[in-house]
């Protein structure tokens, strides 16, 4: 399962962000996830095999560039959708000549924050 980047308060590591952005499949996923999409939709849209897709989603999640949104289905089970989770990524150099990364995120509405909490609770059950 892909880690929920939305619940992470830590900034992603520079290397994780660079690894994700250097990957053509990850960039393709980021281009189409302006709206939430299921893994099946991503597989079809990006023409990426399912097994590869989950590895790419893991890269993006580790870089905190994509987040999961779970929906509970009325008949049971849940559907997971993936959405790009940043407005801007900035890589800069500090005064100590170290590189740093800043990920600016869109503001979350109350229902999105509640959905994140619900998703986290579901994972722990």
TrEMBL record:
What the entry lists under InterPro entries is as follows: ArsR-like_HTH (IPR011991), WH-like_DNA-bd_sf (IPR036388), WH_DNA-bd_sf (IPR036390)
Gene3D superfamilies the record matches? Winged helix-like DNA-binding domain superfamily/Winged helix DNA-binding domain (1.10.10.10)
Organism superkingdom: Archaea
- Name used for this protein in its record: ArsR family transcriptional regulator
Source species of the chain = Halogeometricum pallidum JCM 14848
């Amino acid at each position: 399962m892909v880690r929920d980047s939305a619940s992470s308060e830590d900034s992603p590591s520079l290397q994780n962000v660079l690894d994700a952005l250097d990957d053509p499949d990850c960039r393709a996923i980021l281009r189409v996830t302006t709206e939430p999409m299921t893994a099946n939709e991503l597989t079809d849209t990006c023409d990426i095999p399912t097994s590869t897709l989950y590895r790419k989603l893991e890269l993006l999640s580790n870089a905190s560039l994509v987040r999961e949104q779970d929906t509970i289905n009325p008949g049971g089970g849940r559907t997971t959708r993936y959405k790009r989770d940043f407005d801007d990524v900035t890589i800069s150099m500090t005064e100590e000549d170290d590189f740093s990364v800043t990920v600016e995120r869109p503001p979350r509405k109350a229902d999105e924050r509640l959905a994140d909490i619900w998703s986290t609770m579901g994972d722990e059950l």
